[in-house]
Amino acid sequence: METLTINASKAALTEAQFYNICRQNEGLRFEMTAQGDLIVMPPVGGLSGSRESDLNADVQIWNRRTGLGQVFSSSTVFQLPNGAKRSPDVAWVEQSRWDTLSREAQEKFPPLAPDFVIELRSRTDDLAVLQAKMQEYVENGVRLGWLINPQDQQVEIYQPGKDKEMTSLPTQLSGEEILPGFTLDLPQF
């Protein structure tokens, strides 16, 4: 199954309507572009799911040790400032920013851009679409993003005010000042 994009821009779905669609179809993963297109994302296969779980665990272990924020799985939808509703494979939000949200905002789709995101390209993902998504994250406040691309054995690093950096796998990535003390050893996939 490939990603399905539904031109829903003329429907002008409200946040509540999008939330209800997601809740009524919990077996599916949805995103919405800033233009209002509804994206239905296929489930990932076993290999991608295992890799994604490992990445989330690495960030979670670091976060439990430091207590600096909250870690989120790919099931979490974030409402970005531009109106897009996106679900990175792994996301982290600094605790002070998370604490500014009401309990209701925390329980629904948080209205903020994460501080850090990872997108893991699966076999069916279009690279150009993921690259545009990473750029959108940075334009909406993400401070560090990694696009891990096993198909091309590369990682793309995104940060505001900097050109995209590319590195080959295997590699070690640093969380820099955004995730202090966090390093990720990425083998050749």
Would you kindly provide a written description of the structure presented here, covering whatever features stand out?
The protein has helices at 15-24, 46-66, 95-99, 103-107, 127-139; strands at 4-6, 29-32, 38-41, 69-72, 78-79, 85-86, 90-94, 116-120, 144-149, 154-158, 165-168, 171-174, 183-186. The longest helix is centred in the first third of the chain and has 21 residues, at 46-66. It has 189 residues and is of the alpha+beta class. 31% of the residues are buried. It contains five helices and 13 strands. A hairpin with a 6-residue loop joins β10 and β11. Strands 4-7-8-9-10-11 form a six-stranded mixed sheet, sandwiched between helices. A three-stranded antiparallel sheet has the order 1-3-2, with no helix packed on it. The mean pLDDT is 94. The protein is 29% helix and 28% strand.
List keywords for this structure.
13 strands; three-stranded antiparallel β-sheet; single chain; 5 helices
Q: Summed up, what is this model?
A:
By secondary structure, the chain is α+β, with helices and mostly antiparallel strands. Helix content is 29%, strand content 28%.
Describe the protein's topology.
Elements: E1 4-6, H1 15-24, E2 29-32, E3 38-41, H2 46-66, E4 69-72, E5 78-79, E6 85-86, E7 90-94, H3 95-99, H4 103-107, E8 116-120, H5 127-139, E9 144-149, E10 154-158, E11 165-168, E12 171-174, E13 183-186
Parallel strand pairs: 8-9
Antiparallel strand pairs: 1-3, 2-3, 4-7, 5-6, 7-8, 9-10, 10-11, 12-13
